Amino acid sequence: MIVLHISKHCIETSARMKYEELLSYLLKHEDEEKERELELLVEFLKKANFSELRRRGFDGREEMTVVIKKEGDKFVVERLG
């Protein structure tokens, strides 16, 4: 599961920023949970239909927190709160 805060950036940019954050952290620390999160995030960045996600409202115009989960071969994006 990945938690992203979207604000002023679309979900794709927010995911790329989270990728950079995790990568930087993992270069300095060993953390299996963060490594799994990074692997999931890389797969999400490769496979997600970002045009569709932006169309669904994950475009950064509204501040929100989302959870990204993998269910089978697909990713599910849900807004929290």
Task: Describe the protein's architecture and organization.
The protein has 81 residues and is α+β, with helices and mostly antiparallel strands. The protein has three helices and three strands; from the N terminus they run βαααββ. The chain has helices at residues 11-28, 32-47, 50-55, and strands at 2-6, 64-71, 74-80. Strand 2 and strand 3 (74-80) form a beta hairpin. Helix 1 (11-28) runs antiparallel to helix 2 (32-47). The protein starts with a strand and ends with a strand. The mean pLDDT is 95.
Residue share in helix:
40-55%
The outline comes out as globular
**Number of helices in the DSSP assignment:** 3
Mean pLDDT: 95
Radius of gyration: 12 Å
Structural class: alpha+beta
Low-confidence stretches: none
Q: Give the oligomeric state.
A: single chain
| Sheet with most strands: strand arrangement | 1-2-3
Total beta strand runs: 3
Cα(first) to Cα(last) distance is 16 Å
The succession of helices and strands, N to C, reads: EHHHEE
Characteristics:
alpha+beta; 81 residues; single chain; 3 strands; 3-stranded antiparallel beta sheet
Explain the layout of strands and helices.
Blueprint: E1 2-6, H1 11-28, H2 32-47, H3 50-55, E2 64-71, E3 74-80
Antiparallel strand pairs: 1-2, 2-3
Helix pairs in contact: 1-2
Compose a concise summary of this entry.
The protein has 81 residues and is α+β, with helices and mostly antiparallel strands. Helix content is 49%, strand content 25%.
